[in-house]
Design brief:
The structure is a homohexamer. Chain A is an alpha/beta fold. Chain A has a single domain, classed as 3-Layer(aba) Sandwich (Arginase, Chain A), CATH 3.40.800.10. Chain A has nine helices and eleven strands. Chain A has an eight-stranded parallel beta sheet, sandwiched between helices. In chain A, strands 3-4 form a two-stranded antiparallel sheet. In chain A, helix 6 links the parallel strand 8 and strand 9. Chains in contact: A-B, A-C, A-E, A-F, B-C, B-D, B-E, C-D, C-F, D-E, D-F, E-F. Strand 5 of chain C pairs antiparallel with strand 1 of chain D, so a sheet runs across the interface.
Chain lengths: 296, 296, 296, 296, 296, 296
């Protein structure tokens, strides 16, 4: 049988752990989806707990954005839960994520994916480009993720942008904020991708004309923010942007055509006081309101 | 509209945070219900997070009890979520809990309530005794909870058994394992209630004949267990029982008629490594299987 | 009998946990007072531990401000301990706080209150305006706190500025730094109060002429600071000011007539590494030296 | 001037952080005293925070012992605060502790010292034996502490019982519960001290006749308890006793003449959920009531 | 060039993080080896940090066992560091572990492996049985680990004993202490393996005659111990044995022929106060001394 | 015998816990050395764990600096481990540190020292000035460290710059970023040392001409950074610089002659999510590459 709303069964009850303000309508213009992939991270595991924790802490936010003067009554969204993933079998997991996101995109909805490790973006980009063949990928990240392999493994959170570039062409991959990588990754990025290291907002301003009018997949690795504001991540890299700068960058994209988005690498076991999960939840709220507005 | 099962909307997804193995059937013989009351605790707050955390960690258990040789396919149960409670208004909160539990009991189902602070038991006992007027209350606890008031407040987790005794008669209140209280509480308990301090299993063996054939409300304050095994509670009291002894006591009650039950005072912010929540979840599993078996 | 100084009884001993540098003179021009109210917070409780923890960590500071070139030998203050509060009874607690603060104000001393949740400011403003009927309230905060009720409760940390505005007139309520609230709160603030969202120091500069010469109650919700610097609070909101900006704002007020002040919503259980409590302690030191100087 | 009771200055206030139930009378028969020595510990420092934390958590206990049927109204005690100690100069610190304890003993009061690292016992035994030249020392501990030096240092928590034996004679040193040490320490203990390794309560029963009628200094290193119950200590050693066994041992000593006592090596930074500090506080309560009863 | 001992280069230096007391002789009769496999754990990852943390905390122990009256000068051992493993590729990792252990066994040394997740035992048993074809495996564990697959994956810490049984015959697999599993696992174990659930030491006593004279691989999943004593593990299961019972079981095996051993599933991110790692380190010390004695 | 590389003994193994990228060549131009001194800190101990933790987390970084376009293949360095120190005997410890650093400097190598508390800089400066008699000391710090004594102790982390100034002359001591101290320290600094409080990068720009051509000892107290970015330190002081500003300051010194350096006061027990240790590790990487480049 279909799931019952327990509030209809027992008076006064509420089912917990959906993102703040999610509606029950699976046809809403925006769909939130968790992808708790956490297989190839070596340094500090735990991104598998990201989606659940981001939802938990979203309760501490409001459903209104004073930055955008919009609230969730104006942009309804559905929280589809998490993709069910096996452990120890990354390929099967990637396929499951791809199927789930494809089903959202194919219905014309805007998917917002909660990670999980960055490798998931390979699956989600695969899903989205079926509908948007001329997709560009816009990455906010501390790390280049351009290795060809990592300790012999080709599908890894350290190689994901290399695989995506191979899939869609590196001239469609815009990398902003990068402040860590091997010499080879930086050399590769400078030659092949649209590589804008050590900056976020100023770089975004420069490339906005190149993005205009194109379908954009936005992937935000939360470690683009400085560890002082986002300690809860697998490979914190000092010297990042502030939350204010990240929010401003998201707001700046509102005028463009973002067709899918993810926020990845939130790692709750490392997230003292949950401030990284709360930051991710706020970014997601702004994205739902900013990118979802006008899609109904 | 009714809540949709997201697994039907997006392929491969799973909605998180229900107790392990819960079925979608609201008519199941056992109903799990959270009551995140957390208002009158002075020392270490946080029991409001108990129900959610117990559900989270239940995923680490199996659905089979090797002690009882039973599993959830034999005893289906429904997880009704949490009662929605206001903060700063204990009376309204108690009334909401009472209404929710009454709706379960009135349908002939066995309610198992996840706390929240111990004061909630006043509401749940009120709800249950409407259907079972000759109810007895069996308390496993480190604290007597027999104060007449606590810093001037009459409805408190430190006074709850006093209020319950006034409601149903102290001769129907069996208190086991008590190892902390004021001189007045111990004196009161020895005179009025069925008071068996400083012991759990041996005392239970002694009183089993008095409990036989009567409808029992079992209230387990997790602090009956020693803080070494159950650190995640508001007022840990050294010198308690082991998890093995608590599980044995629950198993021992299987032959009796337990008509409702709660597990209270699990306080996740204090629960290093979640071991208290996991213990509570295991007690709940044994209770569902042990008390729910044969009710269908 | 009166409390003895144990250092007079046992040689070499020191009584712990007073704010750094407090004197034994109850007639000192500044009086520090804790108000560990923590009843209406829903998301992350624990502000009840704020006063004690702020005192504890004050030991890591010096008694000299290089910003003001002043030290505690120039501005003596008395630490009056905490107001004793019942749990589960907010009205009685508010009355006790009001009485305590009134006794300080009535002796002509400057009270500095350590919270505790923001609701306490309703009590303290009541106490202070008896002596300063033309009081204005200056709020540094991430949240508007302008709800009319919160889940049906009218006295809540989410409604406190609404109640204060009703008490003293919204044209006497200056709200700076606000970056979170419902659509209704923002609409209400823009119409009724002196509402300056999304900014702190620039807004303060603009309103300084309006504040000049008037008795000011300064209420600092520590969450006005970004969670990266102040994670230890109940509802962290990304995108806040830096400690430097908050300290500069406090210093800027030195030329005005601050007659009472509080620092609220420090929540030690969430305060990894105590950095929020230390920030609050430093703000308190600067406030004692900056506002207390010249009052003797 | 003498310290004022702030409750007399500001209505409704309470000075925090005294051990639960302490009276203001410096002439009470029992005196509690903190000695936050923490200089020679190599593995996990932090015992300096022990006295403050034990006092903090004592608020979670009751002032009545159901084991002894005694409460603090029957056995009043004074909390003299902490001895003020320099850091980086152990000899000066030991001298300060000795002076403070001597002043208590010389007034005929029973001192109960809260540590701090075990080295402090050298100072306190020195202080006590001036009044009780035939003092015996009874040690409950996981470690022999019989090294002659530790990394070249002779005054260390690893050598303290060696120094005490040299001071009072090893035939007056009773060591119970020892389950860790070098081969040399075990060999030395077996030859020189009253050495009863790998047991607590059974060994105590055996030696009770030897202790009868003699003035006893009881030193409890909290690590005698298993790390499951007492994780908050510098060098946890698996395989220890339960809290129940430690409490029983303390109760067993009630019939003897305990003239001074300490509880040492509680290390709050390692004490998840404060359960070690709470256990220490309960031991202190039982000791005040058990050893102080009948001294007035 | 070969690694230099830094102590020969810079006077007074010491290389950190070797297990306490390890010698520089790679030909020592016992070899310690870390296998930080952590790929298939779903619930709480982090066992990859186990080997490093066990070594770190070993510094808090002594090199002498008072239980065995042996020390490391009598049983020298070499600490060979950790096997270097790829992430996201379990098969390659298992092969690397097998090679490393085989090289130890082939030199006639006793390998003691520090995990890492339990799946590693499949690799180590493979390595050991080449030299000992009639190997029996003795498992101390809370979980049966007898699933045929886990979420579709056949090589998992939940299936490892099934794979081992298939490899060496289930009649050579002795499973003790099991208190968690599916109905199917318990049914399978009762029929096929030497299955002794819900007990450790009593079961060991019963099977000792069956083990006598046979080469034994001992695998200790630390979760056989109750979570109160061993919280730092992936799937804590309440109701386990005490540290004392585990140590007694290890000591009991001393008279038998243990030819290889592992301690697995220590998960430092969950290990408040490091008590699980310390327990594992103590077990390893007793195993080195107990099983290595007489091998030189 | 000499230490063997375990990778030569057991195939595929790796010795853990060296700083990322260290080579086996003890004659490398840069030598990393830990000095886990932690004796005189009163507020929050734990810097003894700094060197080990900085090495641990260095694995999360890359060996390439995109800021300097240099990697460790261009600037090899040797990690000499930690100086072995006694506890409770600061003078002996300082002498051991001095000997170790002197051996590095005397071979013409650049020592980079990982603390440990700031007092160690007294020993390291002593060692370095033998070879560089005209040494200047450049301090980045929140605290002046100019006390003449601290609670009667002259060798303390609070007096270290006073002692160094006495040793080399205060006109050779440049103090930047200072935002905390007593009135006396600030007065002393303004008169005697090169004192530039409340600023880092702007002050550095001003003094660069004075530093040009002179041998520089750079001492970085990590608390110069704001506690939001560097919570893991003994005495956090709000209002500090950002990681970006500290890195820029280090980069700015590249054109000067830095002959030795330390990073001190990293305190892992206070370092939620390890972000302070990671920041220190990144500073060390930039220093190795920036100061070591061109020394071969």
């Amino acid at each position: 049988m279909a799931a019952m709303d327990p509030a209809q069964v027992v008076p006064g009850t509420v089912r917990r752990q959906r993102f703040l303000g999610a509606v029950d309508d699976p046809g809403a213009p925006v769909v939130l989806l968790g992808a708790p992939l956490d297989t190839t991270v070596s340094f500090r595991p735990g991104t598998r707990f990201g989606p659940a924790r981001i939802r938990d802490v979203s309760d501490g936010l409001e459903d209104y954005s004073p930055y955008l003067d919009l609230d969730f009554s104006q942009v309804p969204f559905f929280d589809a839960g998490d993709v069910d993933l096996p452990f120890g079998d990354p390929e099967t997991a990637l396929a499951a994520i791809e199927r789930a996101v494809a089903s959202v995109v194919d219905r014309g909805q805007l998917p917002i994916i909660l990670g999980g490790e960055h490798l998931l973006t390979l699956a989600t980009v695969r899903a989205v480009r079926h509908r948007f063949p001329d997709l560009v990928v816009l990455q906010f990240d501390a790390h280049a993720d351009l290795r060809d392999d990592y300790v012999g493994v080709r599908h890894s959170h350290a190689t994901v942008m290399r695989r995506i570039g191979e899939l869609i062409g590196f001239d469609r991959v815009f990398q902003l904020g990068i402040r860590s990588g091997t010499r080879e990754e930086f050399a590769f990025g400078r030659v092949h991708s649209r590589f804008h290291p050590l900056q976020l907002l100023p770089a975004l301003e420069r490339i906005l004309p190149q993005l205009a009018g194109r379908p954009i997949y936005l992937t935000i690795d939360i470690d683009v923010v400085d560890p002082g504001f986002a300690p809860g991540t697998g490979t914190p890299e000092p010297g990042g942007v502030t939350p204010g700068e990240l929010l401003a960058a998201v707001h700046r994209l509102r005028e463009l055509q973002v067709v899918a988005m993810d926020v990845v690498e939130v790692c709750p076991p490392q997230d003292a006081s949950d401030i990284t999960a709360i930051l991710a939840a706020k970014v997601v709220r702004e994205a739902i309101l900013g990118f979802g507005s006008g899609r109904q």
